[in-house]
Write a structure and sequence with these properties.
This protein is mainly alpha-helical. The chain has four helices and two strands. Strands 1-2 form a two-stranded antiparallel ribbon.
């Protein structure tokens, strides 16, 4: 998952949204299992919007080394 994916999944939903709502949205969208797992690991609470979700998700994302080609 990256910030673009997150906006695509969660843009335009009604906030506040509970973590379980976010999981349901991902599953209905057919999101990869790794994305669903990341959201399942978020604190069990309501989220006020994309920024709030991003604050929790970003530290959990794997670090990708773009490297030099």
């Amino acid at each position: 998952m990256n910030s673009t994916d997150m906006r695509g999944y969660f843009f335009g939903i009604d906030y506040p949204a509970h973590r379980d709502d976010l999981i349901r949205i991902l599953m209905q969208a057919g999101a990869p299992d790794d994305d669903v797992r990341i959201v399942r690991e978020l604190p069990d609470r309501n989220y006020s919007g994309l920024f709030d979700i991003g604050q929790e998700i970003m530290p959990r994302l794997p670090i990708v080394d773009a490297g030099m080609e």
